[in-house]
Each structure stands twice: as structure tokens, then as C-alpha cells.
Amino acid sequence: MPGGSLPSLWLTLVPDFVASLARLQGTRRATSYNSATKCGKCGPGYPTPLEAMKGPREEIVYLPCIYRNTSTEAPDYLATVDVDPKSPQYCQVIHRLPMPNMKDELHHSGWNTCSSCFGDSTKSRTKLMLPCLISSRIYVVDVGTEPRAPKLHKVIEPQDIHAKCDLGYLHTSHCLASGEVMISALGDPKGNGKGGFVLLDGETFEVKGTWERPGGAAPLGYDFWYQPRHNVMISTEWAAPNVLRDGFNPADVQAGLYGSCLHVWDWQRHEMVQTLHLQDGLIPLEIRFLHNPAASQGFVGCALGSNIQRFYKNEGGTWSVEKVIQVPPKKVKGWMLPEMPSLITDILLSLDDRFLYFSNWLHGDLRQYDISDPKRPRLTGQLFLGGSIVKGGPVQVLEDQELKSQPEPLVVKGKRVAGGPQMIQLSLDGKRLYVTTSLYSAWDKQFYPDLIREGSVMLQIDVDTEKGGLKLNPNFLVDFGKEPLGPALAHELRYPGGDCSSDIWL
């Protein structure tokens, strides 16, 4: 925030913010807000996104590391990485917590509670939820006793989830203001498409059932984000587990087996009320509302469509979507198709809602856009971090609407980076962006065989938060190719104190 002033987007939303608070006086959300701003001993997280930006610098990061589809026969594990430049263990894995089972495919983690419970002093952010994409287990990890050496607290077996929810293949975990934990599912226990939500008790972590009403699941599932002030949740689609589990088949796209819709849910009634069909929006994955809890818009990254779409609330209370960024495909030779999409696989927003970041896993670049005007994002930073079109590789670019030449391979501290930028996480102050290179083990194996052999990496990017811009930190590298049991695939990143993609404010 240059000069300490609020971005223009926030200034335009202040009237809506105040009006929303006035309307919500006497409700639980207003009570939560008021107590959050006045409480002496508060709950987890921060009262507002802007207050979160003043939080302490991250010192450790948690990453699930995967061995499924690699040559190592070992369980997945949770890695703790030291990211404190003052520490003698900087850029090192300082702890590994192996899971008790094999081939789980740990994926996206979440917290038992977050800033949505800031006004509740009885809550604390001490448990990290680890849903498994393939085994459908949920591991509950205790990080409160010793954050640098987490311990396994509980295992929720798939049979319990299957029996109570008829769901499996779990993906995104979010804490709720009720104290419960909700986890999205991609399918039913047999691997057919089914976009439902598993609800866990936030204290005992017992499976309570589904969040959605019986029979009300979406056709497909993946990610979700909720915004209580507008009584809405929106979920996304990947594909049925049986379609994506063992790799990507272009024929499945032609057959219409991949998702292309957003599903709008009534937050209070737990019912799907609208489906938004995306134009050119194949495989909408990560979805993010603006962090301002009064905002009625956000963005979703469409992987195969290679575009960013903005969703927003209409005056009549319905929702619409429009494409605001398009990454053009590249005509290539030596690849599985004559045209290579960028494959946008992760997106996030800075806590002040000023910048949008996303990764193009196949093309290999990471991008930063100024979204002060959400309808017209403006490219302010771009950095190539590996990818499929680097010079000297098997792919020859025949026609490129953006680049004049193929980018050079990335070498950091003597390590040539395999794969491309994938999962991203931003520091609270917005000045450091962390990147890992693994997407999903079956797709890693198919698109980046070197990634399987050499392991993924974790990189750090310095961010210009005033004018915009990205710069690689050449002294930061966590090489998961050198893990004790063999090269591992590190995935999503979490800080103990919460971050840009795990905290939701009321």
C-alpha cells in the first residue's frame, strides 16, 4: 500500500462495508465483528485483512510431500521448512512427519479454526487438517504443542466418511465461524463425480455428515470459498476422480468430462441456487473472493481455459461471471498436442486486494496483476521459473503471441528446476511469494518426468508492493530432490499463523 493509503478498490467498498455492518447489527456476524475489534483476549488470526498484513514475518512453512507415483515406496509426509533468514537452518527441512499409510496423495491443507473465529477467545489455531485426494483419509496434525515438530493427532478413515457422507477424494479444507471444519470432495466412494462437502466437529473432529442438504450435491467438485455477508458460497469443478486419477487424456475433454461451471450456494440454507456456465472456462480450479468481507466479487482460475474469470453479484441478488484475463496458447512441436495451454493451476490475492497472482504450470511463468480495477486487471510482474517451453528441451515453440524467444532454463544454487511454478503462497505483508513446482503426482509423471526423478523445489520471489514487479531470490532454494528417502513432490504451503488462502473474514 504505497504511502500507507488504502487501494482505490477498498475506498470504493467502504460505503458497502459500513452499510453491511449496519444491516447486520444484532446478528451473529455483527457481534463477531464488534467483539473482534474490542476483545482483550481474542481468538485465532486477525480482526481484518489489513490488520493481518501487520502480522509477524513467517518463520516456518508446512508442506505436504508426496511419494505416490514416484520410485520411493514410503508414506507421504508433512515437511516443516525454516524460512527465517536469521536462522542457521534457513532453507532447510527441519522436521518430517510421516503419515501411517501409503499412497494417500496429501493435497491441500487447512486449519481447525481461523480468522472467522477471531472474536472467540476459546478457539485457537492448533490443528492442521490434511485431506487426502486419493485415499479419502483426513489426518489431523497437532502444531500447537510444538510448531517446529508437529505430531499426528487423529486419523479419520475413509470408511467413516463414505458411510456418513457418501463422499470421497477430498480436496479443500476451510474452518467455519461455527467452529466446524468443512472439506470439499471430488466424488463419491466409487470415484464418480460428486461435488459435496464433509462437515467435521471442530473439537473432536468426528464426521458429522454433509454440509449440503441430502441429495443436493453438485455434479463435480474441487475448491470453494464462502462470504457470509452476502449469504453465499461458490464452488468449482475439476473432474470425476475416475477421469483424472491416473493422468490426463485429451479425449476426456472432448467427451465433456472436465468441469466448466461455478456453483452458487445459499450459505444459510446449504442449498445450491445457481450454476454459472463459464465461457472458455474449462477446469475452474482455485477460487478466491476478495478478502474484504463486504466485497461481492472475486476471481477463479480456469486451468485448461488458461484464463482468469471475475464473478460478481448483480443488483437482483443473482451472480454473473466474465473473463478478464486470457493467456494465449502456444503453437508447439514435440508435445502431446499442437497447441499448449498455459494451465493456470493456482491463484491468490494479496490481503489488501490490490494484487492477483497466478501460476502457468505448463508455460512456466508466474504473474502479478494490479486489480485495483477488478474489471480490468493490469499485468505488473512476470517471471519464468522453468516450464515446458524452455530452451534445449523437447518442445519447440512455432508460434508465440507473447514471447520473442523461448525462456532459458532456471538454475538456482546449481539446481536446474524441473516442472513449472504451481502452488503459491504470499507473506502477510505481501512482500514475499513462495512457489512449489508439483501439481498432482499422476500429472507430474505425465507432463514432467524429470520432476518425478529429481523432486520438486520451493522458491521465493521478492515482490514490489508499490509499483508491482517480481524478482527471484537467488539465495533461496529448498530442494526436495535430496530428501532422505528419495525425491519428493512438495505441494501446498501453510504458515502456522494463517495466510492469504486459508483465512476468511466475517
UniProtKB/TrEMBL annotation:
- Its Enzyme Commission number? 1.8.3.4
Q: In the record, which residues are listed under signal peptide? A: 1-22
- An individual GO BP term: protein transport
- Alphabetical keyword list: Acetylation, Cytoplasm, Membrane, Nucleus, Oxidoreductase, Protein transport, Selenium, Signal, Transport
Q: Which residues form a coiled coil?
A: none
Which reaction equation describes what this protein catalyses? methanethiol + O2 + H2O = hydrogen sulfide + formaldehyde + H2O2 + H(+)
What highest taxon heads this organism's lineage?
Eukaryota
Question: Pfam families per the record?
Answer: SBP56 (PF05694)
Kindly state the subunit structure of this protein: Interacts with USP33.
Stated family: Belongs to the selenium-binding protein family.
Q: What is this protein called?
A: Methanethiol oxidase
Which gene name does the record give?
Answer: SELENBP1
